[in-house]
Fold these 3 entries.
Entry 1:
Amino acid sequence: MKISGIYKIESKIKPERIYIGSAINISHRWNCHLSDLRKNKHGSMKLQRHFNKYGETDLQFSVLVGCEKEDLLKTEQYFLDSYKPYFNNSPTAGNTLGFKFSEESKKRLSEKLKGRKAWNIGFILSEETRKKISEAKKGICTNPMNDAMKLKISKKLKGLPQSEDTKRKMKEGWERRRLRLGKPKSKYLKLKYGT
């Protein structure tokens, strides 16, 4: 369930050590905190060090109050002033909600990132990992279509004129997919694209 409001992360061993935060989706935000802590890259160095020393089980998460998106910052500031949290980097509430980069900043960032490769290029999963992923996804269909829906879509698409450019792009897409998967071209594709 999506809850907007103010949350608290508290140490069980040292209850005076807390972190106050606000989020539009508190459960998602908590998952982000945990992910960053597990990867040893949390924004709060104090919280990261505490996590590294005492472990995940020491941290207790709770929702302090639910509130509307527009009231998040002033409500968070109230709790920051009241609790004076140990783990927070700043005594002032702030977030990037509604923040927009200037055109100059966008250009600078674009130039900085040009030429960088994605982290997963050349990354190969082991056979064991592939099998695990395959087993986990078996029987899962995110968008199941019944026969009536398939027939309706098929009827709608039949006879629609396609430009030569579209046909070329489709052919190239199928070719790339076939090469990527290492599969020979099917009879259907040979007939359709004449190769």
Entry 2:
Amino acid sequence: MSLLDVIGPVMIGPSSSHTAGACRLALLARHLLLERPVEVRFVLHGSFAKTAQGHGTDLALVGGLLGFAPDDARIRDAFAEAEAAGLHYGFTTEDLGDVHPNSVRIELRSASEEVTMTGSSLGAGLVKVFAVNGIETYVSGSYDTLLILHRDRPGVIAQAASVIAEGGVNIATIFSRRRNRGGQALMAMELEAPLKPHVIEYLRQVSYTKWLRMLPAVMEQHLPASSILERNAEQK
């Protein structure tokens, strides 16, 4: 555990859970789209719903969706930045069930696709994504993470893991969940290094892949938002 884990992340305040964590969740959601988002609805749960404006959660969520890191001063003007970028946004509240009080469902749309992500801010800037497009998953934001929506059939996870190993990258964690037997399944692999573009493209083209995304590590406080976006763009 580092000193930053104890005293909290470098950020635009006032709260590591309500601002830094919210920003990181939105950053992860942003990378579920291959194109820039044009419309988003934030569905706030529990404490997020009660204190969104007072703790800057609303600004942090919009800022993260624009690609701003938690320490980016532009978060203070996120609404104006969103207007300038042509991003339409809205907020609503809903009971999302038995989840952490600081939780949000982010419903995103670009010019050609729609995606939904649900996650929680756990405190001290830590986050957990637990659903993408309605399928249970696990993403901590501490690693570059490969998400593959695929047909549920024997050997798919082993095949993907083999390709990643041949690319010289170690897998830190694997989480897999399926909608139903033989239907769609979603695997999430947290990786100890970014994948090379040709490896990502190969995995995208294999027969079992229906949808693939690479999410960047967002827990690196020293990494500027522009670097996060640029690195992810290089991997697409």
Entry 3:
Amino acid sequence: MIDTKRQEELSISYLNAVCAVKGISTEIFRHDDGGIDAMLHKEKSIDRQNLPKYRVQVSVQLKSTSSNFTESDAFFSYPLKKKNYDDLRTPASTKVFLFLFILPEDEKYWIFHSIDELAIRKCMYWADLTDLPDSENKNTVSVLIPKDNIVSPDSLDELLSQIAEEEL
């Protein structure tokens, strides 16, 4: 299996694990259509319109890398294919996010296994490209992903709550 495929599989495992902890349902699309690799679903209690529950759904495009990015103190810069950039900017009835999984450069550190734990190393981050402008670039567009936008069980659950409450 080539490195990009293995990295993709690890990003799916990371996302599934994070979602499972908070009871967020995931649908993974092995052959994405329009740049969507996963759908996340959860019923949330909300204060809006006196509704006891609200079903929130988001679409996700998954990317993973161990070296194809640069970073500053606050952001990662990732070269996204122009087609993917445009797909993520296209207006949709559900929110669409880019999730970037960053692995260690040396693949021997991608996972750690013992009888007490299985750890997938490093971390996944999210970005909303909806309001970004068109790019004149032909092949790739460098997108900035805030380092504060970590995909963790709590942060992902909070992101879904913000979408349900129409705060995002």
